[in-house]
Amino acid sequence: MRNKNTxxxxxxxxxxxxxxxxxxxxxFSASEITAYADAPYKxxxxxxxxSVSETQTAYLPYETITKIGEDTLNGPTDxxxxxxxxxxxxxxxxxxxxxxxxxxxLIKTFGEGTLVTPRGIFVTDEHITYxxxxxxxxxxxxxxxxxxxxxxxxPDVPMYGETQDFLPLKVIVNDAGTMYVICESNTNGxxxxxPVDNGTFLGYFGTNSTNSSLINIIWRAVLTDAQxxxxxxxxxxxxxNMAIDDxxxxxxxxxxxxxxxxxxxxxxxxxxxxxxxxxxVPAAIxxxxxxxxxxxxxxxxxxxxxxxxxxxxxxGGKDDGQLRIGLSTKAEAIQIGTDDKIYVLDSDxxxxxxxxxxxxxxYLHEALYLFSKGRYEESKEPLSEVxxxxxxxxYANKAMxxxxxxxxxxxxxxxxxxxxxxxxxYSDAFWExxxxxxxxxxxxxxxxxxxxxxxxxxVRKLDEKKKILDKPRAVIAAFKEKKLVKELGYMFYFxxxxxxxxxxxxxxxxxxVLSTNIILAxxxxxxxxxxxxxxxxxxxxxxxxxxxxxxxxxxxxALVLVVGCNYLMCTINDGEGKFKHIYCxxxxxxxxxxxxxxxxxxxxxxxxxxxxxxVSFGIFCMMVWIAALVVISIREINQYTVGETAKIIFxxxxxxxxxxxxxxxxxxLWAQVFDFxxxxxxxxxxxxxx
Length: 690
Fold this sequence. Notes:
single chain, alpha+beta, 4-stranded antiparallel sheet, 17 helices, elongated, disordered N terminus
């Protein structure tokens, strides 16, 4: 029996009818439960800053198929949905294949008596069925009538591996009939078998890489064979599942592979996709109709990616036992219908969950398709609809920016790419805008430079004859003679002659605490300005977000920690520097930051990605300069040797680590005490109130 509710009815009425349907189905053991309801989950996306944010519901639970005709599924592990609406379900608990239509009506079953422990299924457009049977150690092939026409066992060639077993779990087939098989415990990759000569082993495909840190490599080099044998083996992971698209491109999912969890492999087995976000326990993958793909995790979370691996949506989740439609217990497989509905097989519930795209998603898919085909002008209309529903949906802003860039609307592209944090499009559009501006204003710029040079020459000649600059020079000279100004100007001498500069700080009192604090304030101000107002391509914080108090607090705490620990270690190790000397020399060592960073800030507003080197190189030189000044100041202020200086630096870093560890322990202990006091107060209030 099939019970349906319409999405257009009132919410309360929907809930009432849905509850009645569920109750009736349980009471009378109905053959099928079908319900429409609001989503029992939230839908999320990832913005250009890598933050997860909630967005419109992308897919609504459409219906749930719990029985095929009058038959109940038993531990299904895989299924295949064909374009004509036929479903082939691997009813693994009953060791058979169940065929139904899109409505869940039984068409036929086959494989009984042949299949042992089937785990994976693939069906061609001609209804030829391939079943991966683990315990039978074979791939069984059935014709459109369900009759066994062939089987493929373990490849009997040395290249396969003399001790390697053949335990097939998943299988896909390309248009040439070549089979790609995932075998249990086979870490060499996907087994590639040609149907020629009753099964020809072609080799391994899409082998996952191994990851080993430098420390592990060195450690293994010094261990004995017996010790290395006890260590965890560094072997590639076996893919968990795979899918194939109309072009023969293979998609795989592998748990524990980090950014390589989701892969799109070309004919050479090279990955062409790097998913921006992924689930740690993927169950299956399916190819969509718009150059997109879908991954479902074992807990029922569904991830949708575009053709570049960017996450569009994640929704769904694990059922907590309330049997809510749209939530899964253990997802095993996923398929996409020609109408963009998503079908998810749940082995524990022995049912198929169906999700229907919302209007928001339909517009997005239309834009995806048009954009992927190079029809940028046409893609703007559905993108505008998406942005009208949610103007903060980053992918739509990103696609709109790219579409406008293709149309040479660089100002519009700059606007939308900035909203979506699309740095590549922003850089390209900014380059074009800058180039056009230079073309329009190059003559004026040259004339201004020439006029400035002429004016400079004229002023110099007049000064030589009539001394017109004597008074300004006298004012400037008097200003430079002021004590505070001389102390601040000392930083220019310090960064050029750090050894003599430290001598001036320690013995000649060339600086004061006031001038040092002013330089510290300049460092903080420049840091805050650069963090929040630097060029868009180099900004690491979200537009419009400010946390200046935390920034200032972080700098001051770090300063107190470093200077305090260094002074403590220098005092213990016979250092000659006083706290004032150490503090002043440390702050003056950051003078390159005050001098160079404003130029870097200006450059960040001018350069594109092609000239990023200038900003990176400037920052690198500045940091090296600062580090050298800090080391020299520690050595000169305390009259250390090079070895003693290195020792003090190490002890300072170690002390900082210990202080941070103690602070963390105290924080945890205080949090526990605070929670205890809160519980005591609540208990007392409860007792008094009762």
